[in-house]
Amino acid sequence: MSDTAVRVLVADDQKVxxxxxxxxxxxxxxxxxxxxxGDGEEAVALAAVELPDVVLMDLRMPRCxxxxxxxxxxxxxxxxxxxxxxxxxDDESLFPALEAGARGYLTKDAxxxxxxxxxxxxxxxxxxxxPQIQRRLLERFAAPTAAPSAAxxxxxxxxxxxGPAPAPAAASASLPDGIxxxxxxxxxxxxEGLSNTEIAARLFVSMATVKTHINNLFAKTGVRDRAxxxxxxYRHGLSHG
Length: 241
Prior knowledge:
This protein is of the alpha/beta class.
C-alpha cells in the first residue's frame, strides 16, 4: 500500500455490515483499512493506537454511540477526521454528529465511489456530505433567514432608515462578527465544499494565507469546524449557492 494512502478505521456494530465495508474499502485505490471496531468504545481505543486519517463511523452502537465516539476521537486526535456512515438521516442524528466534529455524513445507501469521495474530501480539508445531507443543511439554515425579511414590513426600506440587521446578502460593510470581505469570500468557498488547496487556487493565494483566513473566521464566528462554518454561511447568507 502506498505511503500516501488514506488510513481508515471502520466502526459498525453489525458484523456483516462492518466486514462488508472493510471488504469494499479494500478494493478501492488509495485507501488502507487499519482497523475495524464493533462499538464506539472500541473505535476510541483503536483510534488511539492506529491514529487513522479517517474514521468511518456508524451512529447507533452499544456501550458508546457514534456521536460520543466522534466527540472523544476528535478531542484526543484532531488530525483524525470522522465520516458518519449510518442508516439515519434525520435532524436528531445529523446535527449532533456534526456538532461533535464529524466532517462527513453519508447514509448506508451510498455507493463505493461516494464513500471514497467523502473519505478523500475530509482528508483534504473539505466537507464530505452526500447531496441529500447538503440539501437538509441548506433547508435547516436557510429557513430562519426567510422570517426576518418577511417580517421587515411592506415596501422597500430606505438605506438610511434605522431598524434591525441588514439582509443576508449585505455588502461587506455590514458583514457579521467583524469578518472581512476576503474572509467572507473564503467562507463562501468552504460552503461550496472546496478544500484549502482548491480555495488557494481559486483566490490565487498561498495555502498559508487560506489557513490564516480560516483561523480568523473560526475565531470571530465561534465555529469549531468546517461543518459548522457551512451552517454559519447559510444562516448569514454568505454561501455562493
